[in-house]
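queue> pop job 88
queue> type: inverse folding (structure -> sequence)
queue> payload:
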């Protein structure tokens, strides 16, 4: 890229410092919201085994435990410390840039509220949960291990809850999360849009008949009814109101810790202009509307 052999490249967290230190690269830096919401998924059903060999029902059936975990997650700290600023903190489900995105959310990072919620739960505080030996299951790669260690430290620091690391090979991890009978107690995963519509975010993922919701054990008949009505509503404005009500229910239920959105980080040479960015972009800025892009072949030569 520096030799002008490439017009556009994506970059990672290891490149952020070098770009920031170079005025030319800084001027060519484009970072904007992506198409994915990453979350810490709860098992809302099933039994698990404690260190003493006894079994226990998932504590995430208790809405106060879910509330505690959501408000104890430092999304801004994650974006800064783990992703070098290349992810965007979120406290909602549908990402910015998509129909249905809500800038205002009832969720957020509030350790005091998190501790209060846990105290109000059936477990009475961290000691009740710590006796269970909670586990965070992840596909065992170096990157996943580092990220899982950060999550464990986050909940110890902000909620006083001990979580054990449960590494498995990546193929096993995928299989575990696709079966309601084996879905892990805690698992970091995400959803990326197939197309820019609320239906893809709400109906496809969270309706109780969806495999994704069923794997976790999430079901809310009121949510399902709103989604069914919205999907059948022809008028876009009327449908949007129904989708918004459904997402409000989802945020109140907190079936997962909504953590952060991905972003698109690119370096683009100055002779590439006219691109219109969207969260759906993948390989280069504006790849959904490539006909708007202009390449000035007189530059840089």
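queue> result:
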């Amino acid at each position: 890229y520096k030799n002008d052999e490439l017009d556009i490249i994506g970059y990672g967290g290891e490149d952020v410092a070098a770009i920031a230190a170079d005025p030319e690269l800084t001027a060519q830096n484009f970072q904007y919201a992506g198409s994915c919401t990453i979350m810490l998924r709860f098992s809302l059903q099933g039994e698990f085994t404690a260190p003493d060999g006894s079994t226990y029902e998932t504590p995430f059936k208790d809405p106060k435990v879910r509330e505690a975990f959501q408000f104890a997650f430092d999304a801004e700290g994650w974006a800064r410390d783990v992703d070098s600023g290349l992810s965007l903190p979120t406290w909602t489900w549908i990402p910015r840039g998509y129909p249905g995105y809500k800038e205002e959310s009832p969720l957020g990072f509030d350790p005091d509220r998190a501790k209060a919620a846990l105290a109000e739960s059936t477990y009475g505080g961290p000691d009740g949960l710590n006796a269970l030996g909670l586990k965070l299951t992840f596909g065992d790669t170096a990157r996943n291990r580092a990220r899982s260690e950060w999550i464990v430290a986050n909940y110890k620091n902000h909620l006083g809850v001990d979580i054990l690391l449960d590494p498995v090979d990546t193929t096993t991890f995928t299989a575990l999360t696709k079966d309601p009978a084996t879905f892990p107690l805690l698992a970091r995963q995400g959803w990326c849009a197939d197309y820019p519509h609320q239906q893809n975010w709400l109906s496809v993922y969270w309706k109780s008949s969806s495999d994704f919701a069923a794997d976790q054990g999430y079901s809310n008949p009121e949510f399902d009814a709103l989604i069914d009505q919205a999907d059948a509503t022809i008028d876009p404005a009327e449908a949007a109101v129904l989708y918004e009500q459904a997402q409000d229910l989802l945020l109140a239920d907190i079936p997962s810790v909504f953590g952060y959105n991905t972003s698109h980080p690119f370096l683009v040479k100055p002779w590439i202009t006219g691109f219109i960015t969207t969260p759906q972009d993948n390989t280069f800025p504006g790849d959904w509307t490539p006909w708007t892009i202009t390449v000035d072949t007189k530059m840089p030569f």
